[in-house]
Input
Amino acid sequence: HSDRERFLGLAGLAAHLPIRGVWAPAGVPGTACLAILERRSRTGVRRPVAGQRFERAGFSLEVLYPGTEPSPGGDNRSSLVLLASAGGRRLLFTGDLDGAGEEALVRLARDRLAADLLKVAHHGSAGSSTSVFLAAVRPRLAVVSAGSTNPFGHPAAPALERLVERRARVLRTDRD
Output
């Protein structure tokens, strides 16, 4: 999504890595950083929406969220949610969805959410990883992306407790 720190980090990486293309959800406005990424990519910016599927060499990537309209509630709720499948395994990437975004996703795609691996939404914030969402995903492994010195206290104990209640093995980038 369009949080400044994410786009600035991507623009910095773009100076050193080739970029084939950029995906941004419909709700993300055009920004200076997005323009930089578009100029440095081979195919420009795509705006994938729920229901689109991309396949190559036994690997599929399905867009589960958001739809064609921007999601109400801010940038976090507009995060792309992608389901990757390969070799009989399913990996769910949730961006920075908040709890309300997770529950909207369950309403839209409950039957598509089961996954072996869950990239935990919003760095494991207290409002993410809702019980309703985790019941639909049923992850065996949950990966939380959080910096060891982040000022927000991520991952939050309530989110971690809900993951443990679902018997997910939790790995954290701040310590694992």
Summary: The radius of gyration is 16 Å. The chain has a mean pLDDT of 86.
